[in-house]
Every structure is written in structure tokens, then in C-alpha cells.
Task: inverse folding
């Protein structure tokens, strides 16, 4: 049967994620993998979650195995109001909604805010899950260059005004200000404030995606952009995936109540509600201080791995190679000599026992084919040193 005549435009817009296509290659057994952008399973509190899940099902089964509110678990939302306050975001229960991972939040917000023809500004490079969600509703992604301290603000005004002159609708900037996936870059305090002023001047919304902010090493990153927002211009996304476990698929959106009410309607059609059991487990983890209380250890855990990777790069990387020096998160971004195409090089790297993710797919435009992302989350410090040495020898 020929199905394309039945398909909507979304079938054309939806792109396959090139990283997923590389899965077989980068997950080959035995290799040292810097590819997977996931938290280390060593950090998951297995026994505690098993005990909580079992108790919840036995004692509150009728509630946690049932459908629930589309907005999510009330207790967890109240916990988040307090947590957001700690980061300087003044909010209330009407402005928070839980989602099945931030990925769902990005999808729902994309559906709410973007439509075919809209221009959306995103960092170069940026998180593929975010840019694809915006792309899948017909949005046109336009790239914004970054420097060591985040977005290059000087180009934004020019870009937006030029596109508006051409009759384009420019509504939104998508940014990951803390220890960005994939680059590890953090947006400076000054730039956070200037970005907000610029967004106000140009009448743009800011989508602030922050799954890594709590994973800092020595000092916290600057406060979220949302904390400076007096106009309701910033939509903030947070997630429990990297600070507890992604398997519980629990994350949240903070936005003006008018936006949350609309997102709720879209989510109702998507899944009625996120898993009540997952949310109840996360709420109980929060109550038992298994989230905040474990952050110190988690930060130390990733800091050792990051430092090991940076030291190995310092020692072994050939001339002409540059890399970011993240102060938190899970990723280091590497730029090689300009003639090297990291996609072409990947199979050779895997033959040599090391995997990474090529950088090109992370760019919505102007791809730099000589870049790659290294995740320091999965491998042990010993294997990180060995893996970086192997990769550098091959280079
Ligand atoms: C920047 C960014 N945003 C959102 C997500 C999605 O996270 P989750 O859906 O697990 O909350 C990720 C996952 O890696 C990410 O790196």
C-alpha cells in the first residue's frame, strides 16, 4: 500500500535523529563510549526507589495506578514551587505543570508556540531533541553562534530585524544556559540579563531548557534567566532525569498561568496525564531528601570524570585541537583541525575502541563537521583516560 498520500505535513518535517542511526556503531560491546548523553546508572538510588515503589503500590495503589490530574502530582508541584524559589524564580502552583520528561515539555510547547513558517532561534550547536521538536511542527530553526560564555548577543538583534524586514515571524529563542548539551558551555550572568532585555526589546519569548543546572562542580551557575523575568517572557523547563533517573520520566515547565493552561489542553490530547506512579515515586524521593540530599555526591562523581577527561585531553590532544572546559553537566565539546570530518572518522574511532558523537547533527545551520561531543558520564575515570589517549593517538 502507498501511505504517503495519507500523511500530514508532519511526516515530511519529522527528521530521523542521526545519532539514533549511529546507535549500533557507538554501542558496540567492549568499546569505550563517550557517545551516550545519559546520566551514569551508577548514580541511581536503586534500593530506595524499589522500596518506595513497592510501598506506594501496596499502600496507595488505588491512587498511583489510576489516571490523575493532567497538571501532575500536587505534592510534587508544591515541592517545585519551593525549589524554584531557591533558584530565584518566584512562582506558584498555577504556573507549574509536570510532563513526561522535558522532552514532552519541549514537544507540547513547540505545538503551542510554533507553526509553519515561524523562525525560531537556537544556539549553534544545540540539543537535537529540542530543535527537532520545534522543527516537527514546521518551525524553521536559525542558528546563533556562541562563544565561551554562551550566546553571541551582538548578532541577535540584526538577525531578527533582517528576518522581520523579509516578512518572517520570529517568536522564540531556545537556549540551554547551563552546561549546555552538547557544548558544556554556560551563559554568563551578564549575558542572561542582556538576553532578557534584548528579548523584551524585540518582543521574543525565551525557552530556557535547564536539565543540568544542579550538576555544577564547584560553584553554582548564575541564576536562571527566568529569575530575572518580570514580564512573563521566559518559559523554564526543568527535569529530574539527570538528578534522579530518566526512567521515571518526570520533568516540569514553569510559565505564566495562561501558557500553562494552554499546554494542559495540548497535553490532555497527548497522554491525559503523565504516569501517576512515576510522579508519586519522585515526590516521595523529594520528601525523603533523595534528590537534594544526593546532589553533593553526584556533583563530585561527575567532576572527577570531567577533570579526568580534561587532563587527558591536555596531555594527549594533538595541536590544532580545542575543547570546552565545562564547570558542570555531562559534556565536553571538541573542535578538531578543520580538514577532519568527525562523521567519516567515527567508524575508524570505533575500530580503535572509542566512540563519540559527531558534532554536525547538533547544528541547525552552518554545521562544523570537525566537531564532536564527548560525554564523560558513562565511563569510569580509568577508562576515560585510556579512551582519550586512544582517540588522540588516532587523531
Ligand atoms: C538539553 C536537554 N533538554 C531536554 C532533555 C530531555 O530530558 P528528559 O526528557 O529526560 O527530561 C535533554 C536530555 O538529554 C537535554 O539534554
Result:
Amino acid at each position: 500500500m502507498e501511505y504517503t498520500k495519507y500523511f500530514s505535513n508532519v511526516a515530511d518535517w519529522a527528521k530521523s535523529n542521526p545519532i539514533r542511526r549511529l546507535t549500533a556503531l557507538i554501542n558496540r560491546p567492549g568499546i569505550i563510549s563517550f557517545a551516550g548523553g545519559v546520566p551514569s546508572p551508577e548514580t541511581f538510588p536503586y534500593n530506595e526507589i524499589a522500596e518506595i515503589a513497592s510501598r506506594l503500590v501496596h499502600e496507595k495503589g488505588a491512587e498511583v495506578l489510576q489516571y490523575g490530574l493532567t497538571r501532575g502530582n500536587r505534592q510534587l508541584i508544591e515541592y517545585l514551587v519551593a525549589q524554584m524559589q531557591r533558584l530565584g524564580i518566584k512562582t506558584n502552583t498555577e504556573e507549574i505543570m509536570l510532563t513526561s520528561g522535558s522532552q514532552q515539555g519541549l514537544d507540547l510547547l513547540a505545538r503551542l508556540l510554533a507553526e509553519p513558517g515561524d523562525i525560531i532561534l537556537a544556539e549553534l550547536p544545540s540539543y537535537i531533541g529540542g530543535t527537532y521538536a520545534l522543527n516537527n511542527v514546521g518551525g524553521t530553526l536559525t542558528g546563533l553562534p556562541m562563544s565561551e560564555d554562551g550566546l553571541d548577543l551582538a548578532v541577535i538583534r540584526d538577525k531578527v530585524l533582517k528576518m522581520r524586514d523579509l516578512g518572517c515571524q520570529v517568536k522564540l529563542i531556545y537556549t540551554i544556559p547551563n552546561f549546555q548539551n552538547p557544548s558544556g558551555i554556560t551563559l554568563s550572568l551578564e549575558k542572561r540579563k542582556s538576553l532578557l532585555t534584548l528579548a523584551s526589546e524585540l518582543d521574543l519569548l525565551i525557552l530556557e531548557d535547564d536539565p543540568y543546572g544542579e550538576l555544577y562542580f564547584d560553584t553554582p551557575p548564575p541564576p536562571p534567566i527566568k529569575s530575572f523575568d518580570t514580564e512573563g517572557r521566559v518559559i523554564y523547563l526543568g527535569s529530574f532525569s539527570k538528578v534522579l533517573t530518566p526512567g521515571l520520566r518526570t520533568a516540569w515547565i514553569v510559565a505564566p498561568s495562561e501558557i500553562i493552561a494552554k499546554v494542559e489542553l495540548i497535553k490532555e490530547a497527548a497522554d491525559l496525564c503523565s504516569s501517576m506512579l512515576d510522579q508519586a515515586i519522585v515526590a516521595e524521593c523529594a520528601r525523603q531528601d533523595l534528590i537534594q540530599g544526593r546532589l553533593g555526591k553526584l556533583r563530585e562523581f561527575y567532576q572527577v570524570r570531567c577533570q579526568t577527561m580534561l587532563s587527558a585531553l591536555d596531555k594527549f590532544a594533538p595541536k590544532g585541537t580545542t575543547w570546552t572546559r565545562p564547570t558542570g553537566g555531562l559534556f565536553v565539546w571538541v573542535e578538531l583541525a578543520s580538514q577532519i570530518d568527525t562523521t567519516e572518522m567515527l567508524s575508524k574511532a570505533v575500530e580503535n575502541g572509542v566512540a563519540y558523537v559527531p558534532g554536525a547533527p547538533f547544528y541547525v545551520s552552518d554545521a562544523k563537521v570537525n566537531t564532536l561531543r564527548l560525554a564523560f558520564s558513562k565511563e569510569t575515570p580509568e577508562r576515560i583516560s585510556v579512551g582519550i589517549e586512544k582517540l588522540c593517538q588516532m587523531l
